[in-house]
Fold this protein.
Amino acid sequence: MLELQGLRQTFNPGTVNEVRALQGVDLTLDEGSFIVVLGTNGSGKSTLLNAVAGSFFLDEGRIRLDGHDVTRWPEHRRASLIGRVFQNPFSGTAPGMSIAENFALAARRGRPRGLGWALAPDLMGALRERVAGLRMGLEDRLDNAIGSLSGGQRQALTLLMATWLRPRLLLLDEHTAALDPKSADQVISLSDEVIRRDGLTTLMVTHSMAQAVAYGDRIIMMHRGRVVHDFRGAEKRRLRQEDLIDRFDEIRRREQLDEGAAAMLRELYV
Amino acid sequence: MTLLLGALTLGLILSLLAMGVYVSFRIFSIPDITTDGSITLGAAVAAVLLVGGTSPILATAAGALAGAVAGALAGVIHTRFKINALLAGILVMTALYSVNLHVMGRSNVPLLQANTFATQGERLGQALFGAGPLHVLGWPVTPGDLAVLALAFLAAVAAGVTLYLFFRTDVGTAMRATGDNPQMVRALGADVDRYTILGLALSNGLVALSGALLAQYQGFADAQMGIGMIVWGLASVIIGEALTGSRSLGLALAGAVLGSVLFRLLVAVALRWGLNPNDLKLITALFVFSALVLPRLLARRRGGAPAA
């Protein structure tokens, strides 16, 4: 379904701000799998997601999605295959427009837009029903500007918009990180429900070990632009939060050891 | 009464300019100074064609189309070449000054002999009501002036309604969202660059349409007529927002028309009371400045009051 080969990306090369965000990432997602990407700040996990979404073009590497080589596709073209929810609840919706109008846009993701009426009656009917399914009481407020809603409500609606037309790939970029704990729980369980119901191939980036353990069927652990661990199958199911924390500590210790050893060798031989 | 009628007609004709500025400034948040060039371009193209004997409808449409091309050009410079929107507008406006002179062949084209919407309107008025002055609320009015006013009103309403309907289609909705949240529009599969170019073309097409009608109403096209037009458009949009107190689409468009008419009435009254016409642009600029700054100052005062 999604195939990443040797992704490399360096931001601001040759300057003091040089960041080697991706240093050779290979990853293959099977149809219908739900992968959680876990990592520390600056590990490259959001960069990985943005690379797949097409926010920038890669220095090196190839991306195949649903049988297409999308490496050189611009972001808006890839959107025909990809549904996306951002970390910032303000990013996924147009605040000045009504809930219904936002969905009218989502209903034509990756399709040609013509002079058809945006708020067609059949869309409105389906919309009322699906929004009522969120149990947030928003179905009576479809004409309200989306900017007047809370972050949690906006994130739930963004998820619904991203999956309105079944995407070949769903990208969730720490989409609960900016929410209060209650809304975060609501949005993550809603996400899981939609992913299971529609069997969506999903790549979810998160900070939260609890989410990583509770959701998905595979965990990718990233560090310094590389995939350092891949838990899947029975190993993923058995995994507890403590195991993940241990694993991160281990990586950190190994790194300190490397630096300590290098310093020692320098002193001895240079 | 002639003064009032003139101000109303001019306000309605320039309401097309105001709607164009609304599209670029409020929907795309781009203060698009191409406006100053494209209004003259619309006037110039229409005037030259009218002098050559083209029918008013075709000449006006050609003027609007020329403006749309100019707007699209500014959009391409801004999006494809990543040049700041304001600078892109300045470049196109400056280039248009030469283009306009070339189109007209000199700095001023009079339309005294030409068959225009204005002359057609006057003939229509006389055919309907005769040559003599009519009395509206006890004031004498020539039927010709009244018919021209009616034509301007029809043009403003037709443009407003068309624009409103357009912005509720799939394309129009995507265009509005582009100004509201480009990141989301990209994630939903629409090309932000394309919609920005299309939006600026639409905006400048309306502006040039306004210019083409203005030339016919005032009886000439002039290379200098566009100077400061963007600020007049902004003033109309801002007055309109104050009048309707709303940023919802339909009311905002209606507000732009009302704002334009009210603005021309205020100008007419001020000139009548002895305002030096040379000061008009200075005062308009000051007005727009204060309209942009005042809400922020008031908010700060309100926010700061409890602490003080």
In short: The two ends of chain A are 50 Å apart (CA to CA). Chain A touches chain B through 36 residues (CB under 8 Å).
